[in-house]
From TrEMBL:
A Gene Ontology cellular-component term: cytoplasm
Protein's name according to its UniProt entry: Uracil-DNA glycosylase
SMART domains: UDG, UreE_C
Alphabetic keyword roster: Cytoplasm, DNA damage, DNA repair, Hydrolase
EC number from the UniProt entry: 3.2.2.27
Family in the record: Belongs to the uracil-DNA glycosylase (UDG) superfamily. UNG family.
CDD domains, alphabetized: UDG-F1-like (cd10027)
Species of origin: Flagellimonas flava
Localisation: Cytoplasm
Main subcellular location: cytoplasm
NCBIfam families hit by this protein: PRK05254.1-1 (NF003588), PRK05254.1-2 (NF003589), PRK05254.1-4 (NF003591), PRK05254.1-5 (NF003592), ung (TIGR00628)
């Protein structure tokens, strides 16, 4: 099956695309997009990879599901298209950046600028039916994105993984902690942030400190 994805990732994930589970997943996704409104747009399903080539990946942020409201999801976790109001989790991410690295609160919630600097913004499930959170979970996407995390872990060194919330923290078992860095905290959603589990984690400055120690370019958050 022909998957349109950035060439360096395509080479690394070729075996996954040939697996029976992925063939089945593809049929499911095609049918869903034919019969229902789904997000993100078809050409944006693999946008996280398209904006962040394999060998340029320095940081991985793991989300759960794409946004399921109109025109929000753009294929990168936590990110929305230009001009779209910022969802609550993204608001809290930007507030933490403002206090942590003293960056002004940005106008656009489009995080493609992070991806282009080497931040892989990976949702565990890459598609969703409109207004139905979690509707495409347990159809095969998680198996695919777990393979992505394992591939980065095995074939890269010194990647900083940011695991926010219980769901993301479970992915730590896929990561070789002897050669990568893992930072964990509560989720930026209001539920978690208002309980004091998000603000003050300083993940953005800590990530840049780790990158600096490894002699890698810093991320302009």
């Amino acid at each position: 099956m022909n998957v349109t994805i950035e060439p360096s990732w395509k080479a690394k994930l070729e075996n996954e695309f040939e697996q029976p589970y992925f063939q089945k997943l593809t049929q499911f996704v095609k049918q869903e997009y034919r019969n229902h409104t789904c997000y993100p747009k078809g050409q944006d399903i693999f946008a996280a990879f398209d904006h962040c080539p394999f060998y340029g990946t320095k940081v991985v942020i793991i989300g759960q599901d794409p946004y399921h409201g109109p025109d929000q999801a753009n294929g990168l976790c936590f990110s929305v298209k230009d001009g779209i109001p910022h969802p609550p989790s993204l608001v809290n991410i930007f507030k933490e950046i403002k206090t942590d690295v003293e960056q002004p609160y940005p106008k656009s919630g489009n995080l493609e600028r992070w991806a282009q600097q080497g931040v892989l913004l990976l949702n565990a499930t890459l598609t969703v039916r409109a207004h139905q959170a979690g509707s495409h979970q347990k159809k095969g996407w998680e198996q695919f994105t777990n393979a992505v995390i394992r591939t980065v872990s095995m074939q890269q060194e010194g990647v900083v993984f940011l695991l926010w919330g219980g769901f993301a923290k479970k992915k730590a078992s896929l990561i070789d902690q002897s050669k990568h860095h893992i930072l964990t905290s509560g989720h930026p959603s209001p539920l978690s942030a208002n309980r004091g589990l998000w603000f003050g984690n300083q993940h953005f400055s800590k990530t840049n400190q780790l990158l600096a120690q490894m002699g890698k370019p810093l991320i302009s958050w």
